[in-house]
Write a structure and sequence with these properties.
alpha/beta; 6-stranded mixed sheet; two-stranded antiparallel ribbon; 51% helix; 12% strand; globular; YbaP-like; TraB/PrgY/GumN_fam
Length: 286
């Protein structure tokens, strides 16, 4: 039960990386981008994060820390430093159908054998959370280490020490709503059995991200077998459009460091292109 509670705490951060795949879009190799506009008094920044990484490989680029020194707010996808959002997270994870209600007895049995191998626990332990939440939890097992660092948590802690306010682009309830619309139960069931394949691509993506190659990082995790047009629409395209509108309002009032999954930056529907279409000057910080 202790292990399950730990996985619940990191669930949103884990799933954010899994769902941050988009169709390939070439951008320059940088995880940090400066946002400017003639009407803005101050510049803002856009940081494409890798949500989780092994502790011994973890680092925050110096240029990102420097940008945090020069902004009024740190803006995350969701704000898990907010205690009310943590409570909402735990409530969201037990909403909806049980896994056993969405699968046949045969499917449940087959999945049980697989989950015991990957998670070290029987499927019954996860039944109440639903299959989309189980899929989210499994991403914590993709890295080869047990000591994992989460970029957003680390950034929020640094921001707190610097008295930089932490806010969010969406609520936990919104994010879970997108996840459930994007991944119906049988699609989650199919994806879970691709765990070993995705794990291999995920770890390749980690290595490429450390080189700031966000285009190739995206390509690895955006293959058709991992994401279809339906899931892309709900998890990426719609969210990016919503975020750009919110970012425009935020930047009029204050300077911000927006920290979101790296692949939200790339492609024709990515934040970099959408911001440029709105007249912003978006340039890589190299």
């Amino acid at each position: 039960m202790k292990n399950i509670k730990k996985m619940i705490t990191v669930c949103v951060l884990c799933v954010s990386f899994v769902i941050s795949a988009q169709e390939k879009g070439d951008v320059e190799n940088s995880v940090l981008w400066k946002i400017e506009h003639p009407d803005l008094k101050q510049s803002s920044y856009l940081f494409g994060t890798l949500h989780m990484i092994c502790e011994d490989e973890f680092s925050i680029p110096e240029k990102v820390l420097n940008s945090l020194n020069n902004v009024d707010e740190l803006v995350l996808e969701v704000n898990l430093s907010d205690s009310e959002e943590m409570i909402a997270l735990q409530k969201e994870m037990i909403k909806g159908n049980k896994i056993s209600e969405d699968l046949t007895a045969k499917q449940f049995s087959d999945l049980d054998a697989f989950i015991q191998k990957v998670m070290g626990l029987p499927l019954q332990n996860f039944d109440a959370y639903g299959i989309s939440t189980l899929y989210s939890m499994m991403t914590s097992k993709m890295l080869s280490c047990t000591n994992i660092k989460f970029m957003e948590i680390e950034l929020a802690q640094i921001a707190a020490k610097k008295n930089v306010k932490v806010v969010a682009l969406e609520k936990v309830s919104e994010q879970f709503g997108y996840i459930k619309m994007a991944y119906p139960p049988l699609e989650c069931y199919r994806l879970i059995f691709l765990f070993e394949e995705y794990k291999e691509d995920f770890n390749k993506a980690v290595r490429l991200y450390k080189q700031e190659d966000i285009t190739e990082t995206t390509r690895l995790i955006s293959q058709d077998k991992y994401m279809n047009a339906h899931s892309r629409r709900y998890l990426l395209e719609n969210r990016n459009i919503n975020w750009v509108e919110k970012m425009a309002v935020m930047m009029k009032e204050k300077s911000n460091l927006f920290a979101v999954g790296a692949a939200h930056l790339t492609s024709k529907d990515g934040l970099i292109q959408l911001l440029k279409e709105k007249g912003y000057i978006v340039t890589p910080v190299l």
